[in-house]
Amino acid sequence: MNDLILIDRIDRTTFATRSKLYLSGKLTTYVTLEDYTDPTGPKVYGERAISAGRYLLGHRYSPNFSKQYYTRDDKNLIPWTAWAKLPKAQQLLYWPHDVIWVQDVPNYEFILHHWGNWPSDTRGCTLIGSSFAVLRGQPAVADSRNAYVKYYAEVMPIVRTGGQYITYRNSFSS
């Protein structure tokens, strides 16, 4: 049984967990950043990542993230700043994008895939980036917004078909 996404956690610090991302079993150029992963404990908002395991994927509107990008085909995104410059008649052809949602996490809701660079940006979610970095002395991901737009175009059309899963695997040394 192949999942759509595999988050292979390869490294962790006391602040964050870094991972490689696989789509349909193939390694991608995307990397992720999450809260600290404690393999013995449950998810704690802003402190610990979700437990390793398999979860159903969905999509949902996010009050914090959906209006940062607009779409007219549920695949391609434009930043809200570009959308705001469109004539009103063209703006009506676009809507705020749904965000990829990791569902059915025990004792936790609304874990999303979104952009950000630092552990403080995770808000309990999974950040998408193009490479690992150290920014302001903290583990981080780089080029997150560009990576997110590309990731969204690849993943959201498949997530919208329903029945797709994601696995979070801990491959780091304990």
SS element count, helices = 3
Spatial separation of the terminal alpha carbons: 27 Å
Q: What about the largest sheet? A: 8 strands, mixed, barrel
Output mean pLDDT: 92
Radius of gyration: 16 Å
| Count of strand segments | 13
Strand content: 35-45%
Q: Helicity level, as a percent range?
A: 10-25%
Number of domains: 1
| Shape estimate | globular
Question: What pattern of helices and strands is seen along the backbone?
Answer: EEEEEEHHEEEEEEHE
> What structural class do the secondary elements suggest?
mainly beta
Which strand order do you get reading across the main beta sheet?
Answer: 1-2-3-10-9-8-4-13
Model regions low in confidence, pLDDT < 50 over at least 5 residues: none
Q: What does this molecule look like?
A:
The strands form three sheets. An eight-stranded mixed β-barrel has the order 1-2-3-10-9-8-4-13. It has one domain. Helix content is 15%, strand content 40%. The model has no long low-confidence stretch (mean pLDDT 92). It is mainly beta.
Quick overview:
The protein has helices spanning 80-85, 88-91, 144-159, and strands spanning 5-12, 16-23, 26-35, 53-60, 69-71, 78-79, 95-96, 99-102, 111-114, 126-129, 131-135, 138-142, 165-170. The chain has 174 residues and is mainly beta.
Question: Any descriptors?
Answer:
three-stranded antiparallel sheet, 3 helices, 13 strands, mainly beta
Write the layout of secondary structure elements.
Elements: E1 5-12, E2 16-23, E3 26-35, E4 53-60, E5 69-71, E6 78-79, H1 80-85, H2 88-91, E7 95-96, E8 99-102, E9 111-114, E10 126-129, E11 131-135, E12 138-142, H3 144-159, E13 165-170
Parallel strand pairs: 1-13, 9-10
Antiparallel strand pairs: 1-2, 2-3, 3-10, 4-8, 4-13, 5-6, 5-7, 8-9, 11-12
